[in-house]
Amino acid sequence: MIKKIFLILFPLFAVFSLTGCNSTGRVHDKNYLRALSVRSEGGESTVTFSFFSNDVMTVKGESIDDIQEKAELACGREIFMGYTQLVVLDGCECSKLLELLLNDKKVSPDCIIAYSNTGSLLDRCSAETLYSSVKTAVKHGKSPECDIVTVLSGLCSNRKRAEIAEISVNGFSGTHSISA
Amino acid sequence: MNRITKNQFASLLLITDTFVLFCFKGSISLVTVLGFLTGTAVQFLFSVPAVLMYRNGGTIEGTGKGVKGIYLVYLVLWGGMLFSMLWRTAEVIYIPYESSKGFGGRLMTAVLIALVCLYASSTGIKAISRSAVIASAMGAVCIGVVAVSAVTGYNLGNILTARTDDSFFTELSRGFVLSGGLGSFIVLLGFTKGSPLKNTVFYFVLKLLVTAVVTLATVTVTGGIMSITDFPVVTSAQLSQPFPVQRIDSLFLIIFAVFAVFSITVQSFSGAYLLKEIFPSFRKYRSTAILVSMMSVAFLFFYTEPYSIVYTFAVVAILLLVPVFVLLKRRFADD
Question: Does A21 touch chain B (CB under 8 A)?
């Protein structure tokens, strides 16, 4: 009898205590990142965050983790990178950064990697427009496939190089080769 | 004794095999795939003495306390290994709950899984085996989605270009370590209806198929980034997208947790059964004792090399040597 009661009560207890929405996981407690641009100069990185809420923020620091922490303190919310659509690179150590973004920050495997040498592009252009521009270029065969998995595959291959789209304030402007 | 069907038998064992593949740490290449598949074929040959052990109504009850003791110790050690694999892999599984990370979070995950295993063990072999068929069907859907995503969305050329530093024989050995669930194969074979040989063939054919699909899909998805991937099967599930904006993380998360529960439950149930056979007076809290032992033993495996040759010998011993010993003992007893 005791065993039967245990067999019924245990799953009921587990259902009520372990499932459902938790107060630490509310949607409005997070800032959802749409695009990210990373520029490195002399050991310091400048990162511009563009969020789905259309907020844009630029932070300087020594590492991505350090920069993310500063950005979270500034905006008062945790930054969620799981939906990131676009990463714009400029003179940074590509392999390590992309590896960190894929393995630790869990960006989407569809996330596009592009190159720009026009400063903090995300301050001047909408992330949505830049993303659409690269997607269209890939669709028309003007740009190679440059999702994060394809780019990392190229950087991890014997060639240690990958072709990515180059973007400017006018959108897609050509292709660019990056090396590991 | 409750008897289970051939499908239930295969489901219980394949869930453990698949869970261990999910937890695989290291690189996978075509050599790995061939090593694992050859290993499965060799294991089938090695299982012949176990099949003969159960021929003509032979049971594990008649093997003697020493043999049952060996299997009991092995099951506890393998259960501990499963806990340590769960611990290691939980680090990279994407659980969208803040408290799941760190030592405390992973300990909580392990303890909750142990509690569910305790619950499942107390329901008996019939309930576990029936639900295992449903769980394995869910797992098959998940693996199918990953395989289809791999074929449609990734470069099949990765199968040929992915490289590992290990030789074919190292991979063959690792394939044996990943087949640690064969201890419960020996115990459960005695619970299964029908011909032991047919049941064994059925299980090993499905194991060959599952291993081939999981490893080939993994190489296809993560082949290009294998050098920066610690847990390739988990990563391939995380990167698989059946549709452009849809990932299967959440399905994989559920399957991973369910398979963890079933894998450990199968070991604890088999262990509890052998404990009852060895110590008939030990009536209560057998499953609890086995699970606590497994969790204690798990600490031994946390920081050791998971694919040591010692474990390969352990698998060969329980699959081949112990049944051969039992058969020889019976033969001399008959003479």
Answer: no
Phi first, then psi: what are they for A40, rounded to 5°?
-115, 135
Distance CA B210, CA B322 (A): 27
Tell me whether B97 touches chain A (CB under 8 Å): yes
CB atoms within 10 A of CB B198: 12
Interval B25-78: pLDDT, tens: 988 999 999 999 999 999 999 999 999 988 877 778 778 889 999 999 999 999
Which chain A residues contact residue B227 at CB under 8 A? 156
In this structure, are residues B252 and B237 in contact, taking their beta carbons and an 8 Å threshold? yes
Q: How many structural domains are present in chain B? A: 1
Q: pLDDT tens for residues A89-103?
A: 886 667 888 999 998
**What residues of chain B, 6 to 35, have a C-beta less than 8 Å from chain A?**
none
- Show the low-confidence residues of chain B (pLDDT under 70): 1-2, 94-101, 244-246
Task: Yes or no: say if B215 and B28 are a contact pair by the CB < 8 Å rule.
Answer: yes
Query: Nearest CB to A109: which of B161, B226, B239?
Result: B239
User: Does residue A156 sit at the B interface (CB-CB below 8 Å)?
Assistant: yes
**The residue count for chain A:** 180
- pLDDT, position B244: 65
Q: What is the DSSP letter of B99?
A: G
Q: What ipTM describes this predicted complex?
A: 0.78
Could you tell me if residue B1 is inside a domain? no
